[in-house]
Amino acid sequence: MTPAEIHDRLRARFGDDVVALHADLRDPAIELRPERLRDACRFLRDDDDLRFDFLRSVAGVDRRDAIEVVYHLLSYPRRHTVVLRTRLDRDRPSVPSVHDVWPTADWHERETFDLLGVDFAGHPRLRRLLLPEDWVGHPLRKDYERPAEYHGIPVGRDASPPVARGGGGDRPRPRPAMHEPKAEELAGFLRLNMGPHHPATHGVINFLLETDGEILRRAVPDVGYLHRGIEKLAESNAYLGTMPYTDRVDYLGAIFANHAWALAVERLLGIEVPPRGEYCRVIAAELNRIASHLIATGSLAMDLGAFTPFIHWIREREKINDIMERICGARLTYNYLRFGGVARDIDGETVDMIRRWLDHFDPIIDEFNRLIGENEIFVKRLARIAVISPEDAVAWGLVGPNLRASGVDWDLRRDQPYSVYPELEFDVVVGRGWRGQVGDAYDRFWCRMLEMRQSVRLLRQACEKLPPGDFWAKPKTVKPAANEVYACTESARGELGVFVISDGTDKPYRAKFRTGSFTAMSIIERLSPGLLLADLVALIGSLDVVAPEVDR
Amino acid sequence: MNVVHHAADRCIRWAFGVDPAAWPWTWVVEAAFLLLAAAVLLAFVALFAGPVTWVERRVAGRIMSRIGPNRVGPQGSLQWLADGIKCFLKEDLIPDGADRPLFRLAPYLVFGGMFGAFVVLPFGAHLVAADLNVGLLYLLAVTSLVVVGLLMAGWSSRSKWALFGGVRSAAQLVSYEVPAAFALLAVALAAGTLSLQGIVGAQGGWPWDWFVFRNPFLFVAFFLYFTAAIAEGNRTPFDLPEAESELVAGYNVEYSGMRYLFFMFAEWANLWIMSAVATACFLGGWQVPGVPPDRIAAAEGWAFVGGEALSFAIFAAKASALVLLVIQLRWTLPRLRVDQLMITCWKYLVPLAFAVVLGALVLLALVPEGGLADSILRATLVIFGAAVALLYGRRIRQTYLADRDLYRRMEGKDAWYPPYRLP
Amino acid sequence: MVPTLPAAVKRWFADVGRAIVTTFEGLAVTSSWMFRRPLTIQYPDKIEKPVQEMLPASYRGLLEVDLDRCAGCLLCNRACPIGALQVKVEKNPQTGGREIVQFDIDIGRCMFCGLCSEQCKFGALAHTTHFEAVVDSPDGLVLHFARKPTPVSRHKEGQGPPRRAVGSILPDIVPPCLGRVPWRPKGVAAEPRRPDEPPAPGDVPPAAAPTKPEVS
Predict the structure, then answer these.
(1) Which of A501, B63, B283, C120 meets the CB 3.0–4.6 Å disulfide criterion with A509?
(2) Protein fold of A3-121
(3) Is A308 within 8 Å of B66 when comparing Cβ atoms?
(4) What's the DSSP call for residue A372?
C-alpha cells in the first residue's frame, strides 16, 4: 500500500486526529496528534491489510518551534513502510509510549528521552540510556549548551586532561563507602557488575546482574560508555564530512554505514551511481560482511573458551584487511564510499587478489567447522540456549542474522533491494534449528557461517561482472533541498538505517542512525531470567552485539 | 628398596663408619636426606613448571599460526624466568576487607596439595622419594587438599567473581575425584597393589605389556582417568573456575605477585602429576622395553646409573607426550558450562567408571595372565590403538594438504608481503 | 517427557561417540597447524624491508604537504571534518602576493579519512606510507609544515615542477624522539638544508648516518 492509501485508511478510522500527509517528502510522512498515537499504532499493527509489525526507528527532532517524534514502520508480511510524525510542545513534550504495541520501543523511547527530553507517558521505566543518570541537559536539542565540566572533569573540545592542567587530579576523590549488605543480598541473591571492562562483553558495555548463585534472575544492560555523539556531530559537519564518522558507527562493518549514509544523501540529491561504482560498493560490502562475521563467530568461540578459532579468523581477516588496504587505503575505517560512487577504483590486480583469496577461504570455513563449528562441546553450549521466537524477534526489533535465525525470511538485499543486488544471485539463510531449536544461539551462529559462504558466492559474481567505466559520478555540490529520507542497508548485524533531514544547506539538519546491535542489546534483559552466567556470555556473543553500534 | 633410606645408610657407613641400625643419630641423617629429596623434587617441579609455560606458549603460538615468545633468551626459552622475576617484584595486594589469614594461607594449601603428590611418583626404576605401599590412596587423598585451598582463595578474596570461581572449582574437583579414583581402582585390581612402583613393576616395557592394552575396560579406564585428571587440574575443557572469558581468572582474580605465582605453579605442576600418574598406571611407567627391572637392580656402578637414567628418560618421554596432549587439548576445545560439567561427571563418567571396574574385574578373573586369550586380547587392542594413531596422522595430513596448494597460489610470486621468515 | 530406557542408552552412547569424534577432528586440525608456517611479521627488526615499503602506495598514512606546490586554495582546510588541518594564507604587504603562513596538521586529531588529500588538485597534500611518529609531548603531535611563509604556487593543475617524492618531506617535520632515525623513501636522500631556512625539528646531525633496519 502506498503512503497515501495508508493515510486514507488512518483517516477513515481516526478522522481529524490524522493531521496531514506530507506527500512532498521523499518518504511521505503521516502526521498524527500525539494523544491518539498509541491507538493509531495499535491499529497499524493489528489491521489485516496494514500489519506493521516492525518498528524500525524512533527519531526525535528539534524543529525549533516544536519537538517532533518520527516513527518509521515496516511490515514484514505486507512489505510496505510508513512514516509517522507527531509534533509536541517544545517546553513539555509528551507523547504516549508505544512500548506495549512494539516492545522494541522501550529502548528507542529511552534514547529519545535521553537526547531530546521527550516524556513518553506510560513507559515502564523511563530513564536515561546513553548518558549518565545525572547528566544535565538534552544534547540533541538545538539550544543545548555543553556543561563546562562533569564531576570535576573538564568537558569540551579543547579541554586537556585534568592531570595536565593540575585540575581534577588535586581534588580529593570520594572514598567508596564500606560495603554494607543490601536488603537483596540478605535475601540470598547476588548483585554483580559484569563490565564495563570484561572480556566477554563485546566492547565497553556494563551488565547489572542479579543472580541466585549461577542462575540469573535479571541482567540489565547499562550502555553508553562508548557514546560519542555521532548524530550531533553530523549536524555540524558537511554531508561528506560525516562519512568518516559513519565508519565509526560500526567499525567492524564500516562499509555498511558508509553505504547507508551514501544512499540517504544520494536519494536526497536525486543522483545515480554508475554501474562500476555499484559493483565496487558490492565488492567492498561483501568483503566487509565476511570480515565482520569472522569476528562475530570467532569471538563467540573465544567467549566459550576456544581461543584458537578466533585467532585463525583474525588471520583470515588480515587478508581481507590487506585487500581493503589496496582498495581504499585503510584497514578498518574505510571511508570508501562517496555520493555518486566510490572514492577509488578497484583495479584488475586487486580483483585477481580477491579471487585467489576466495579460493583459499572457502575450504578454510570447512576447517573451522571441523575445529569448532561442529564440536560437540560447542554445540552443547549453544543449542537450545536463549531461543527467540519469530514473533519476539520482530516485536523486539531484531534484524539481520538474529532475525533470520529465528525463522523470519527477510533480507534487505533481496526484499528492499538497493545497489546491484538484484543482478546477483544469492540465497537468504534462514534458521532451521540445525542442532537444536529454531532461533537458538547455535542457529544464529550457523546463520553467520552460511552467510559467509553466500558472501563468497556474491563476491565471485561481482568480480566477474565488474563493468568498465566510471566509478564516481561526483555531484557538483552537496546541498540537498529541504527533504527527509530513510535509507537502510543490510549490514552484517542487520538493518543499518539512516534517517536524514536536510534543510537546503550543506549540513544536515538531523541525522539518526538506526543500528542492529541497539535492538539486539535491548532483548537481553528479556531473555536473561533463568539463564546461567555462562549462557549470558553465549547469548551476547551469539547476538553479535558491538558496542559502537549500541552507543553511537 | 627405598632410595632415600638406602642413600642415608650408605652415607652413614661411609662418613661415620657405624652400623646405621645401631647408631642413635641415624634419624638425623635420614631426615637430612629426606629434606634433600624434597629439595630435589622441588627443583624438578620448578624446572618443569617454568619451562612448560614456555612450551605451552610456543605450542599455542604454532597452533594459532603465530610464533609465541621468542625474544627473551634463545628462542624465548628464558621467558618464564622473566615472568617469574616480574611476579616476584609485583606489589603484594590484599583486597580491602579480605580475610587476611585465609587469603595468605590459600596458595600454600594449593601448592602443598600438589607438591605432596610428587612424593610417590615413580620417576625411574628406583627413583621414588617414598614408595608407600598405599601410594594410590595417598595420591588421591593429598590432592584433595587443593579443594580446600581453592575454596579458601575464592572465599577470602571478598570478591563476588572470585567466589564464583572458588565454588565452581570446589564442586568440580570434588566430583571428578570419583571417576578418577575408580579408573585407578581398576588399575590397582590389575596390578594387585596400591603401590605405584608395584603397579609399574606389574607392567612391562613393550606396549602390549602396558595396562592400557591389557583389556578393553582398562583401555577405557585410561581415557576415563585422563579426562577426570584434566578436570581435576582445571584445564580446558574444564577450566570454568578460571574461565578467562567470563571470570578473568576466577578464584585467583584478586591475587598478585608471589601468591599468584604459587597458584600458577601448582597448576603447571599438576600437569605433570596427571601425566605421570597416567603414565605410571597405564603406559608402563619407566619400564624399558627389553630390559626387565631385575637387570637394572642387579647392575653395579655406572651400569646401574645408566639403567636408572634410561628408565627416567623413558618415563619422562611418555609423561611429556601426555603433557603435550593436555596442552593441545586446551587450545582445541571450548569449555563446558558448569551444569554440563556436573552432568558429564555424574551421568557419563561415573556410570562408565562403575562399568569399567566391574568389567575389568570380570575379565581379570576370567582371562588368566599369559594365556592365549590374554595374548589375543592384548594384540587386538595394540592393533586398534595403532590404527587410531595412524588414522589421526592421516587426518592431520589431509587437513594440511586441503589448503596447502591454494595457500601457495595465494601467497605465490605476487605475495603482498615479502616472504616471512621464522626467527 | 521421559525417554524409554533403550532410547536413553542409545542417546548416551551417541553423545559419547560424537564427543570423541569431534574432539579427534579438532585435535587433527590443531595438529596440522603445527606443521604450517606462522604468519607473524616481526616488526620492526626481523623483517626484510621496512613496513613502509611493503604498504601499497594508496595507503592512508600520515599526511604530508609539499608547500612549493600548494596553491593556497584552502579546500583541504574546509574538507577536514575534525579540524586537524589549520591552514592560513595571508597577503604579503611587501610583495602583494599570497603566502602560506601556517600549515599545521594535528596528527593527534587526524582520523586519516583522506577527505583532504582528495580535494587537493595540485598533488601538494598527500598521504604517505609513514605511520611511525612517536613524540614525547602532546604538542609534538602538531606538525608545522610552513616553517617560514611560503608564497603560494601559481602553477595550474598538472603543470609546474614535479612534487617531491611522497614521504620525503615528513621525516624532516616530525620532531625527533628517542633517537629514532626516520625512514625515508628509497632513492631519496635528505635534502641539504638551505642556508636561510630555520633548522627543521627532524634534522639528524650530519655525524649520524641513517642505518638500514636490521635484517635477521
Answers:
(1) A501
(2) Beta Polymerase; domain 2 (3.30.460)
(3) no
(4) I
Pick the CATH number of A230-520 from 1.10.645.10, 3.30.1490.20, 3.40.50.720, 3.20.190.10: 1.10.645.10
Q: Where are the domains of chain B?
A: 85-392
pLDDT at A151 over 90: no
Nine-digit cell string for A249: 558507527
CB atoms within 10 A of CB C29: 23
Task: Work out the average pLDDT over A508-531.
Answer: 92
Q: Which residue ranges make up each domain of chain A?
A: 3-121, 230-520
Chain B nearest-CA distance from A480, in A, is 42
Q: Are the C-beta atoms of A483 and A504 separated by less than 8 Å? A: no
How confident is residue B88, by pLDDT bands cut at 50, 70 and 90? confident
Contact yes or no for C29 and A371 at CB 8 A: yes
In chain A, what residues touch B239 (CB-CB under 8 Å)? 305
Contacting residues of C for B421, CB less than 8 Å apart = 46, 48, 216
| Cβ atoms within 10 Å of C127's Cβ, excluding its own | 22
Hey, are the CB atoms on B423 and C42 less than 8 Å from each other? yes
State the ipTM, two decimals: 0.88
Tell me if residue A31 falls in helix, strand or coil: strand
Q: Do A230-520 and A3-121 have the same topology in CATH?
A: no
In tens, the pLDDT along A233-249 reads 999 999 999 999 999 99
Query: In chain B, what percentage of residues exceed pLDDT 70?
Result: 94
pLDDT digits (tens, 9 = 90+) for B96-126: 888 889 998 999 999 988 999 998 999 988 8
Task: Report d(CA B261, CA B272) in Å as an integer.
Answer: 17
Task: Check CB contact under 8 Å for B420 and C40.
Answer: yes
The one-letter amino acid code at A403 reads: L
The residues near B217 (Cβ < 8 Å, ≥ 6 apart) are B186, B355, B356, B357, B359, B360, B363
CA distance C4 to chain B (A): 16
pLDDT per position as a tens digit, A463-498: 999 999 999 999 988 899 999 999 999 999 989 999
- A177 inside 8 A of chain B by CB: no
Q: How far is A505 from chain C (nearest CA, A)?
A: 15
- Average per-residue pLDDT for chain A: 88
**Cross-strand pairs, A73:** A55, A82
